[in-house]
Amino acid sequence: MHSGGFFHATTSVLEKFDHAQNRFLRELGISPSQALLEFNFAPPSLRRNIGVLGLLHKRVLGKAHPTFEKLLPWYTERFPEGRGRGHDKQLYGHNCEIKCHNALYSRSIFAVCDVYNTLPQHVVNACSVKLFQQYLTHISKTSCEQGEEAWASSFCTRPPYAVNQL
User: Which is deepest, 66, 140, 155, 158, by most CB within 10 Å?
Assistant: First the structure.
């Protein structure tokens, strides 16, 4: 499954992918957290989120198609005063322009810019997309190990749904 192709689908469609994996894990007698921690088998929702963040990081590294640079400019290009939070690689996600269709915006790549903009500096300083995604996976695993209920929806811009309950 190519994460980018499914990312913009409605939450009800995406839940079906998570449900299928959870049913598979139940058949094997493995919990979703055990699948992540022992087998590095993350839920589809988490893989999608990390995949799209990887695309944003590719844009930050200057390795994405030039269209992404126009679509997702640096935040400081549009607002020279900057945001004063997160890190020094802020992307402009066009959230100031949203007046309606918030649900559509929340499942777009533009909303993911808000997630990217709040990542720690050391994560966005990663010199490759692979290393960047390894950092994100480590953050998710740490969240899972600490027993946080929402670990499976780490880096999510959508309203939460019960991934582990499906």
Answer: 140
Cα–Cα distance, 159 to 106 (Å, whole number): 9
pLDDT in tens, 27-84: 999 999 999 999 999 999 899 899 999 999 999 999 999 999 998 998 864 444 545 5
Neighbour-count burial of 141, counting CB atoms closer than 10 A to its CB (0-12 exposed, 13-18 middle, 19+ buried): middle
Give which of 55, 44, 165 is closest to 116, Cα–Cα: 55
Asked if 36 contacts 138 with a C-beta cutoff of 8 angstroms, the reply is: no
Euclidean distance between CA atoms 109 and 86, whole angstroms:
18
Q: Please give the Cα distance from 163 to 15 (Å, whole number).
A: 7
Retrieve residue 139's tokens.
């953050």
Distance CA(30)–CA(121), nearest Å, equals 34
Residues 58, 1, 106, 45: is their CA dihedral positive or negative? negative
> Which pTM does this prediction carry?
0.84
Q: b vs e for 104-117, b when ≥16 Cβ sit within 10 Å of the residue's Cβ?
A: ebbbbbbbbbebbb
Quote the longest CA-to-CA distance of the chain.
Answer: 54
Instruction: Give the type of residue at 39.
Output: F
